[in-house]
Amino acid sequence: MKIITVRRAALSAILLPLLPVADANAADEQTMVVSASPQAVSELDTPAAVSVINGEDMRHAAPQVNLSESLSSVPGLQIQNRQNFAQDLQLSIRGFGSRSTFGVRGIRLYVDGIPATMPDGQGQTSNIDITSVDSVEVLRGPFSALYGNSSGGVMNVTTETGQQPTTIEASSYYGSYGSWRYGVKASGAVGDGTQAGDVDYTVSTTRFDTHGYRDHSGARKNLANAKLGVRIDDVSKLTLLFNSVDIKANDPGGLSYSEWQANPQQSPRGDQYNTRKTTKQTQAGLHYERQLSDQDDLSVMMYAGERQTTQYQSIPMGPQLNPSHSGGVINLDRHYQGIDTRWTHRGELLVPVTFTTGLDYENMSEKRKGYENFVLDNGVPDYGEKGAMRRNERNLMWNLDPYLQTQWQLTQKLTLDAGVRYSSVWFDSNDFYVTPKNGDDSGEASYHKWLPAGSLKYAVTDAWNVYLSAGRGFETPTINELSYRPDNQSGLNFGLQPSTNETVEVGSKTRIGNGLLTAALFQTDTDNEIVVDSSSGGRTSYKNAGKTRRQGAELSLDQQFGESWKLKAAWTWLDATYRTNVCDDASCNGNRIPGIARNMGYASFGYEPELGWYAGSDIRYLSDIMANDENTAKAPSWTVVGLNTGYKFGVGNWKMDVFGRVDNLFDREYVGSVIVNESNGRYYEPAPGRNYGVGLSVAYQFQ
Q1: What is the DSSP string of 269-326?
Q2: What is the dihedral sign for C-alpha 371, 374, 378, 379?
Q3: What percentage of the chain exceeds 70 in pLDDT?
Q4: How far apart are alpha carbons 64 and 68 in whole angstroms?
Q5: pLDDT band at 39, cuts 50/70/90?
Q6: How many Å apart are CA 513 and CA 562, to the nearest integer?
Q7: Cα(291)–Cα(179) distance, rounded to whole angstroms?
Q8: What average pLDDT does this structure show over 359-378?
Q9: E strand or H helix that includes residue 633
Q10: In which band, very low, low, confident or very high, does the pLDDT at 542 lie, cut at 50, 70 and 90?
């Protein structure tokens, strides 16, 4: 077995089994990797819209706090920093996930093979440690049978695997608004990874503090990540994974248009109600890989974790006096675990064929409690204090998904990929808060769907591939989306149904010198799309929207000139509209789906030598975004520019990198994200004006 390291990160097997070795070797070293498995994958040869972002590029002259810093070069991916660490980033792929008021919806997230998305489809990015990321892979569209409950696609994060020589690195960043990140990372290996007993390791820990751009938006975050690999023998390896995150963050909330215009930094409800959120999550995983023969591989991923969340919301006392109201304090205690077992075989059935088959099981148990967010002091509510209990339930969610994905090398130039997954998701809710005016709201629901996908790829030349893909996506309501009924009655909203979508895509990928040019056209039709019905006082309810359509075009260029000049550019056009009426008092048929920009643009250009001075700039454009279904409110378009410069040098075993950057160079006042369908018209989450930062990293290699 060969273990070959090349410069460009690759697509992991969690997305597609794809290329056998013979085909992979035809790809250039800039877009290909050969892993411990005898299979390899490249961006050029993948018959779907996929992008790979290298971890070193993500850390280059960057704060290393949020994924929004470094993923703007991915077409079709709309990722926005809400300036609110209590609610996570706002992230959507081809418009799926844009409705989420917190966390990530419509996208399947993985970190080192462990889902960062729960069985119900709700995910978060808060546990991703950018300082130890090796690569981030973004697959747009439902074109892999290896994942399930999502519509927009997959984001897979792979952290670094330790290698010789042993290296210790300390890094820090200080920026505007009292933002300060510092951390330590150690990585190394014993042996070269090919012999029994060889060990590799990467351990990283960081702390981040900020006062926040807006009032009442301060946050503190502690993050730790560890990866330990042990070569059992010459055909098998065991990897232990550990991750922990601890967040304490204030929640500034949204602003009305007039409030944004008057003072974008204010947080009137945040100060009044002391809105805030604490999150603690710890998880561990065990990944076993074995090469059964020259044609067969086995992979088993097992994991378990727990996540505890407490959130104080800006809900007045009046609505909470309703006996069916669940209060203004949410307390969640979640335990989750799962196992994904898959077998990959490479052989021949008249033509060369590769197939991967497996079984994925996940479950989560949740204790959900609600409390009033006030205590009475002489009859006057003192907000921000936990009061009487108003909700107490235990929710169970689990899924069991068998899947099969195959690749057929029909001719030297023509390849067929086809796969299917049968996705089953179960919900079971047990209500323990039963009063004379608040009945038993227990209930159960289950959802099942066949998810086929297929793609034809034709190699026009060794450097130019075209493809045609079609697939089905499936997205169930999350437990949060089931939590509140539109009629303000108690109980789960079991009338909410899953959404399904059908996507057709045609694309082209061309290697140009030392770079890659990609283009894709797609259309996605969705039935029963889940959309926000109303969002008020921290309570968001959802409904099914009938039919929607998304159609668009995506272009990207990743090019390197000479040894040190780098250019990245991306453009997305996305037309996302309702095809049935979803409004109660007006016809919204034909309206734009809120939260989705019709046009996005990005370009960066920089001089980045191995050592010495470097400098770069980037420009980001986002067209206007509708904030509600009626399309009567929107966030204006914006364009922002950033600059960075720094110096890298080495002395003996020491390496140092010092840099400075400025973002929003021209001090543009704009809305960074919107809260879709916020019932009080507080849609707007402002972004900061011109801001600055400096960073330093020092590394020592033990030679």
Answers
A1: HHHHHT-EEEEEEEEEEEEEEEE-SSSEEEEEEEEEEEEEEEEE----HHHHTSTT--
A2: negative
A3: 93
A4: 10
A5: very low
A6: 10
A7: 47
A8: 94
A9: none
A10: confident
